[in-house]
């Protein structure tokens, strides 16, 4: 190291030291800039996607009357699709990630591919312009009023889902857009325009969806506990029952896909769908018997060893749920947009409209982009922060989601896939609490701890539960109020008031 005398004697050495100091400062500045700009990358990419959606709409529509309205609607539709991807897809992939059956990166890739494929290959080709009868079409038959009502509904739903995602609360995107349509309909034509019987059924689904999901998921976990997990020879029990359970899973998902995921390609009733499920379940169970026997060789006789037998079925179930989600829920992002395009082009609202393919592409790509940019946080919350999941518990949640959707479709109940999946996670967690305390008699003495610490040590984290339940309850009222306010402001600015 050079001494002060050396530096005075050698001006070159002094210059090099000064240069090193300056370069060090620049290096620190670059690191600080990179650190502070990193959170802006995802929003920046999202803004580029929204702008591209608007540009594509302008190019396709051309220089015609109302083009600027469609451009704005396309940008809002792209924003909605981003938020649905960030919030809703976590319900499908969260349990698999929480169970460590797949990495977060792998889950994002699988979900992006399956969501896009479901939206483009099996997405609904027609959609009710008033969100399945929430608002009577004749109440907002004037095209200009209808366009602004749909735009307000779309933006309100997107803003609410964005807020819920930021809060870490998985909410129903269907309920968000329904609340938006209801609020805009009330602002446009009064309370008489709303079909209150349909709204009552939706309100009932707030309770029905999570309760059904929780009860069925807990039931599957009870079967696993009784037949495999708490048996003396777990591996031998797994060789007998895991092929049967995988066969049941395959049959349920075949029925689910026949009824929901492929309804654009072929329309099948419940009976035909169940027959398809049985036709898949029996051969799959027989086929998996030697596979499970081979996989279970050399495994230790403990619960942790069973994870390997459920990992692949769990990933496949998450992929199928993502495909069906893309097929069904893409309409939440692009349904109002398609209605606006129809109203601008044809000058009428109409009861049912065709979704243009460019609109479907906007929704499908938006789901995947939103998932990749903003989905990881909510996936981690759903997968690991509500309650601890392993492969078997996550399998119960995934299978419960499919069973409840099939059952609800048969009964005609308007249930939410989000509520079902989260209800399944709660059901598994609360069942574990009950089973450990009442059956296994594992009672830890926590009486000396503060109330907050006792609550934190529960299997189900109550703080997350209360946040999620509060978000569910206020989704429809919040989006309705926001949509009504946006509609009032938009029509005022447009000179329609």
Automatic annotation (TrEMBL):
A Gene Ontology molecular function term of the record: phosphate transmembrane transporter activity
Originating species: Pararhodobacter marinus
Subcellular localization(s) per the UniProt record: Membrane
Annotated protein name in UniProt: Phosphate transporter
Membrane topology, record value: Multi-pass membrane protein
UniProt keyword Methyltransferase present: no
Keyword Protease found: no
Alphabetically ordered keywords of this record: Membrane, Phosphate transport, Transmembrane, Transmembrane helix, Transport
Lineage: Bacteria, Pseudomonadati, Pseudomonadota, Alphaproteobacteria, Rhodobacterales
Organism domain of life: Bacteria
Pfam family, one: PHO4
GO CC list: membrane
A biological-process GO annotation: phosphate ion transmembrane transport
Membrane spanning stretches: 40-62, 68-90, 102-124, 144-165, 177-198, 204-224, 236-259, 265-287, 308-327, 355-374, 394-413, 419-435, 466-490
Family: Belongs to the inorganic phosphate transporter (PiT) (TC 2.A.20) family.
